[in-house]
Design brief:
Strand content: 35-45%
Order of helices and strands: EHHEEEHEHEE
CATH class: Alpha Beta
Shape: globular
Length: 165
């Protein structure tokens, strides 16, 4: 397994991966088929991220195929530049193999070198596997975001979680 920062020439494979993860996951923000990002739009987005000192995307690759990602989105205001929001996705067949842990380890090391002292994310309270991964990698629950998502018409709560570096 190779964990590396994403490259602009990964845009096509990356958007396919994101859409595939969304199709396989109950708890992602976007529903299957909802994301309309084109490869060209993704390429432009990757170019913008590349120019920011406090944002990046890590990919997990097995035998040349992207199987997971971790997006680090740094704050844009002076008062939030030390903080970054995390989004992670891993193909269903590849979960439970340590990929998530490796992505978080790489992101944490990267964040420390880029003056980021706070990582944060949200997780649906029923997402037991995600919650276990985040706790394992040092995240703590800060609070509950009540009825924050409607999934199949049913309200779900999310935990706010953070890790201070």
């Amino acid at each position: 397994m190779l964990i590396r920062e994403i490259r602009i020439d990964d845009a096509d494979n990356f958007i396919k991966l994101v859409k595939e993860v969304e199709n396989q996951s109950t708890f992602m923000l976007m529903e299957p088929g909802e994301r309309k990002t084109t490869p060209e739009q993704q390429k432009n987005h990757l170019k913008r991220i590349e120019q920011q000192n406090n944002s990046t995307i890590f990919s997990a690759e097995i035998k040349g195929k992207l199987v997971g990602y971790l997006i680090v989105m740094g704050g844009s205001a002076k008062r939030t530049m030390h903080s970054a929001y995390i989004v992670i996705g891993i193909l269903e067949d590849c979960r439970g193999q340590g990929i998530g842990t490796e992505l978080f380890n790489k992101a944490t090391k990267w964040a420390s070198k880029h003056n980021i002292s706070r990582l944060e994310l949200t997780v649906v309270t029923e997402n037991k596997a995600g919650l276990a991964l985040y706790k394992k990698t040092g995240f703590e629950v800060e609070g509950t975001k009540r009825n924050s998502l409607l999934i199949d018409g049913k309200p779900f709560n999310e935990y706010y979680m953070s890790k201070l570096l």
